[in-house]
Amino acid sequence: MSHPHDDPHPHQPDIEDAPLGYHETLTEALLALLRDKGVFSADELRRTLEEIDSRSPADGARLVARSWIDPAFRERLLHDVNAAARELGIDAGGIPIRAVADTEQVHNVIVCTLCSCYPRLLLGAAPDWYKSRAYRSRVVREPRAVLREFGLELPDEVQVVVHDATAELRYLVLPCRPAGTEGWDEPALAALVTRDCMIGTAMPIVPG
Amino acid sequence: MSPRFRPGDAVRVRAWDPPGHVRTPFYTRGRRGVVLAVAAVHPNPEELAYGRSGLPAQPVYRVAFSQAELWGEAAERTSDRTVADLQERWLEPAP
Fold first, then answer.
1. Could you tell me if residue A62 is left (phi over 0), alpha (psi between -120 and 50 degrees) or otherwise beta?
2. A176 is known as an active-site residue
3. What is the ipTM of this complex?
4. Are residues A168 and B79, on separate chains, in Cβ contact within 8 Å?
5. How far is A208 from chain B, CA to nearest CA, in Å?
6. How crowded is the C-beta side of A163, counted as CA atoms within 13 Å?
7. From the first residue on, what is the mean pLDDT of each consecutive set of 10 residues in chain A (208 residues)?
8. Min CA distance, B93 vs chain A (Å)?
């Protein structure tokens, strides 16, 4: 069925339709200079971006799942996440990452109130909400209300501990192994561990 | 530089408002907390930000605050806690 041409489809702006901001202009200029001076090539830049984009929460989930089935690995993970990740062939990068372990009594959640520090090499790029002012300012002030908006209602007897990554460390939440997973193998366990479980805005759930 | 504080020490964050790049969140300033651990010894990022050396390297501590200490009457749950990573030069003993 044809439609009248005086009734155009709503126009969705293309990416170039918004004006370049100050920082976009600065970034473009800096990139052009670095390329022109041969500091790196366009191909190297693309490969680096591909490497960054290839990271996903699957790597973090493997660490969590392994820690659930191997208590000695769990100890090593709590001592040094980057070294424990190397054991599994995962490059967690040069910035130290610290695992904060949930217990029956303590629920951990991470934030970077100053900017958006995030264990990117284990979880992939941070979600936009993690970088938002709303999350960064509210989760230190009213963590339970924020977690409730994520669908996570914590019992009164559980203490919430918010970790504000203000310095040279990144944090990774090590959630509790859910009941009903006895005897599960590592890949099946890892499939329960979502990105938000390792931020602390969710808990692993066994499909029922 | 060997760490001045040990785990379990009570500290108060300096109520200080220097200009420029600052890594101590505003909500912790002037607040009393407890050192959990030495997190790192690192060149001062507040100097590194300006291309300076940031030396001598500074101990960075994981400091825990109760929500009651941070937010007073407005605390959502007084017994919940927030842990921030803070540089030694921002901390004073709070016996």
1. alpha
2. no
3. 0.95
4. no
5. 31
6. 31
7. 62 84 94 95 94 93 98 98 97 94 98 92 95 97 98 96 91 97 97 98 94
8. 20
